[in-house]
Design brief:
The chain is of the alpha/beta class and 242 residues long. The chain has nine helices and ten strands. It comes from Paenibacillus contaminans.
Length: 242
Amino acid sequence: MFDSRHYARTIVKENIRSSALGKERPLTVYLPPGYNELLSYPVIYCQDGLEFFNFGRIATQTNYMIMEENVEPPIIVGVEVDKALRSEEYDPTGARFEAYRDFFINELLPGVESRFPVRRSADERILAGDSLGGTVSLHLALDAPQLFRKVIALSGAFYEATQLRLQEETDLSFLELFMAVGLQEQAVEVSRGVYDFLQANRNAARLLTERGAKVSYEEKDGKHLWGFWQNELPSALRLFLG
C-alpha cells in the first residue's frame, strides 16, 4: 500500500507562547507535498498532537491520500498535550478547560494563521481528537461556531456534561462530524472509572442528529486504542478533504 514517497514529509516544530495556559505549548506541523507559501490550505487541528503523528500515522496516511486519491492537501497542526493536565484541559468540567479554550481560540489560531498559509473560513478548519480530545473538539465547535464547523471525534468521551450541553442546543445544522467508536468499548477504564463509550457515542450521535448536525457515524470492531483509531482516520480525512 505505502511506498517510499508516502513516508517523505516536511514536519515543522514550533512553540507558541500562551498567557492563558501560563506556559509555552509545543506544536508539530505537517506541510503537504508540493507545499507552497503562495497557496492556501485547509487546516486540521489535532488534540493529542504527537499521538496523531506517532500512533495515528496521520502524516503518512495524508501523504498517501494526496498522492493516490487526489484529496485536497491540508496543513496539519498537532497541538501537544500536557498529559498531567489533560483531563483538566479537555474535559468541559475541568479546572483548566476555559483556559485551554481561550488558548485555542485567542492564541493558537492567530499564531498559526500568522505563520502558515491556512484558510480562515470555519468550513476550512477541522478539529480532530480521540477520547477526551474528541470531547474538547466538539465543545470548541459548540462554543465558537463562527470559527469551527467540522469535527473528527474518535471514540469521543461524551460524558454527562457533554450530553447535557447537546440537549440544551436547538440548532446544530452548522455542524458536521465524523464519529467512530469501537464495539468493544462498553467498559473502558478511564480516570473517572469504567465508562461505556459505545452507549455515550450512540447518545451523542442521536442528540446531534436530532438538532440538525450532519453526522457520519460508524461502529466497528475495535477497542479504545490507537490501533482502532488509526484505521478510521482515512475515512475521516476523505469526508472533509475528499
